[in-house]
Amino acid sequence: MQTDLTSFHQGQQVLAAGKPLKEAKAAMIMVHGRGATAASILGLAQDIAHPDFAYLAPQANGNSWYPYPFIQPIANNEPYLSSALRAVGDLAAYVVEQGVPHEKLILLGFSQGACLTLEFAARNSRRYGGVIALSGGLIGEPGTQWNYPGSLAETPVFLGCDPRDFHIPESRIHESAEEMARRGGTVTKRLYPNLGHTVNDDELQFVRALMATLTA
Question: Are 143 and 130 spatial neighbours (Cβ–Cβ below 8 Å)?
Answer without folding.
Answer: no
